[in-house]
Design brief:
Number of strands: 0
Strand content: under 5%
Shape: elongated
Number of helices: 6
Radius of gyration: 23 Å
Order of helices and strands: HHHHHH
Distance between the termini: 30 Å
Largest sheet: none
Structural class: mainly alpha
Number of domains: 2
Low-confidence stretches: 97-118
Length: about 190
């Protein structure tokens, strides 16, 4: 039996949210999902920026000079802080995956606020506007990181675990490995 025809251990490929198991081979399915996500994040970012811009312009025209100074100070501060936390939390190279604990409650609160705003509540509408300002940083981070090599810390961790798996099995020939886990690739990134 030739070396290339030998049956080798198959790694367990974990499914990643949004990518499934396509991250393992990084073929057409993977890049289709990545492209779709990037376009979706770009649309979300554009709509968010458009809504934030509309709100700022409307408020800006209805306040005096002191009000404008306060408005722009608050807006710039909130947007900068949201970008800091958005990029920090979404960074694919982070060693830990952000916890989703408490997000279900926040989603429920957001749904209730949205319904109240549709019902004509000015306070609820204001809270949604503030949430939109805060969200711009996350929208930007999601879009920017969708353009990087790996889209999430979960994908980074899965790839690193798979690299380790292949490093422990140097006898598996390159013809039996996905391109990102071939010997030359592993040598280039430093074993």
């Amino acid at each position: 039996m030739k070396m290339n025809d030998q049956e080798w251990d198959r790694p367990r490929v974990d499914s990643i949210k949004g990518l499934g198991t396509s991250w393992y081979r990084r073929g057409g399915s993977y890049w289709t999902k990545r492209t779709f996500a990037t376009i979706l994040y770009a649309i979300i970012l554009c709509v968010g920026v458009l809504l934030v811009g509309t709100i700022i312009i409307n408020i800006n025209h209805s306040v005096n000079t002191l009000g404008r100074v306060v408005l722009w100070t608050v807006v710039v501060s909130v947007v900068l802080v949201s970008h800091y936390y958005g990029f920090r939390d979404m960074n694919p190279q982070r060693k830990t995956v952000p916890s989703s604990t408490g997000r279900t409650g926040a989603a429920g609160a957001g749904m209730g606020t949205g319904v109240a705003a549709l019902g004509g509540s000015g306070l609820a509408g204001g809270l949604l506007a503030i949430g939109l300002f805060v969200g711009v940083g996350w929208f930007t981070a999601m879009f920017v990181y969708s353009l990087t090599r790996y889209t999430s810390s979960t994908e980074v961790q899965a790839v690193q675990a798979m690299r380790e798996w292949y490093l422990q099995r140097p006898e598996i020939p390159d013809s039996q490995r996905p391109r990102q886990f071939r010997h030359a690739t592993l040598d280039a990134i430093g074993r």
